[in-house]
Specification:
Strand content: 15-25%
Helix content: 40-55%
Domain DUF4872: 154-328
Protein name: BtrH N-terminal domain-containing protein
Strand order of the largest sheet: 3-8-4-5-6-7
Number of strands: 8
Shape: globular
Domain Butirosin biosynthesis protein H N-terminal: 12-143
Number of domains: 2
Oligomer: single chain
Order of helices and strands: HHEEHEHEEEEHEHHHHHHH
Length: 335
């Protein structure tokens, strides 16, 4: 067991794993800084890709990219592995634990038996840290949990090699070198510029604020296009991706707003603080959308909205986010 490992709970798994791994190596970065420097906030709607016959919706960048971008910008060298053999994957994990190295890894939520049953479903991009073994069980730091826990060899294998999209394939990662000095302000501005650029300037209608607007337009017509039952299933998935996968769309906005607040203090730029306030309001608007969408899914007759009205709410969120990140891009260009 790695006795000097410190676990801290976070809102989102990848941010929390990065923060906890780096703390072990003597670097203190809280969740908003990891998320902001790693340019984690994003939006994409990919109707041509289906998971369980439901179009893919994401409110963040794809798994693994937050740590990659963050480590590149701070100057951390990270070792990454994936495996075709379960035995080799577990042997390599044991080797790193014997060396006293906590290991981050990608897992399926469904096979993590320490989670409450209501939270276990087939989602294959959940990040955890394994930091030791005791009595044949692996010690786990799961950032969404208040305390550390443990898991059996068999369940950890299932979680690391679950089938579906994306396949975890036993992926594991850990820092091997950390810098003595780094340019924090430069990393902050680089992260801000990439996020604002990707939210407003990718010439593709399915991503960024344009993607949110496009989904709003499609959402209005789901009942007539695919029928009421399927429309409810698709809307329920939008809510799940927004509110239950990691922190979800609104939660990611609150984390990024906290990052802009910290960035404002560190760089002395008042505009970043003003934009953080606006983004918090955008997160509130997304939460309102999720509330009314949930009432539609539960068939609540009073205080509800139509699909057209839900589309209007989401389009207003898209408008707000485009304005916020367009202004943020202008602020970052000169830095």
């Amino acid at each position: 067991m790695i006795v000097d490992f410190t676990h801290k709970q976070s809102a989102h798994c990848e941010n929390g794993v990065v923060s906890n791994l780096l703390r072990f190596h003597g670097m203190e970065f809280d969740e908003p800084l990891v998320f902001g420097i790693g340019s984690g906030l994003f939006f994409s709607y990919l109707p041509f890709i289906r998971v369980n016959s439901i179009p893919v919706v994401a409110y963040r960048i794809w798994p693994g990219q937050i740590f990659k971008r963050f480590s590149d910008r701070i100057g951390i060298r990270v070792e990454r592995h994936k495996f075709s053999s379960t035995e080799k994957a577990m042997t390599e994990l044991d080797k790193m634990l014997d060396k006293g190295q906590p290991v981050g890894m990608l897992t399926s939520v469904y096979y993590l038996d320490y989670l409450p049953a209501a939270y276990r479903f087939h989602f294959n991009a959940h990040n955890i840290i394994v930091f030791g073994k005791k009595d044949g069980r692996y010690l786990v730091s799961d950032p969404v949990m208040e305390y550390t826990t443990d898991i059996s060899y068999e369940d950890l294998v299932r979680a690391r090699f679950a089938k579906g999209m994306p396949e975890p394939s036993g992926r594991m990662y850990y820092p091997v070198t950390v810098p003595g000095d780094f340019e924090l302000n430069k990393a902050i501005w680089t992260g801000i510029k990439q996020t604002s650029e990707h939210m407003t300037r990718i010439p593709m209608p399915l991503v960024g604020s344009k993607g949110m607007k496009y989904m709003a337009k499609r959402l209005r017509r789901w009942p007539e296009r695919v029928g009421d039952r399927k429309a409810i299933l698709w809307l329920g998935n939008v809510i799940r991706m927004q509110e239950e996968i990691g922190t979800g769309g609104a939660g990611f906005r609150f984390i990024y707003a906290a990052f802009l607040d910290q960035a404002s203090q560190r760089t002395g730029n008042q505009q970043l603080f003003d934009l953080s306030q606006r983004l918090t309001k955008s997160g509130d608007a997304l939460r309102d959308f999720a509330y009314y969408a949930g009432r539609v899914c539960k068939n609540r007759k009073s205080d509800t909205k139509t699909f057209v009205e839900l589309g209007d709410m989401l389009e207003e969120c898209a408008r707000q986010e485009h304005a916020i990140f367009n202004d943020l891009y202008d602020v970052s260009r000169s830095k």
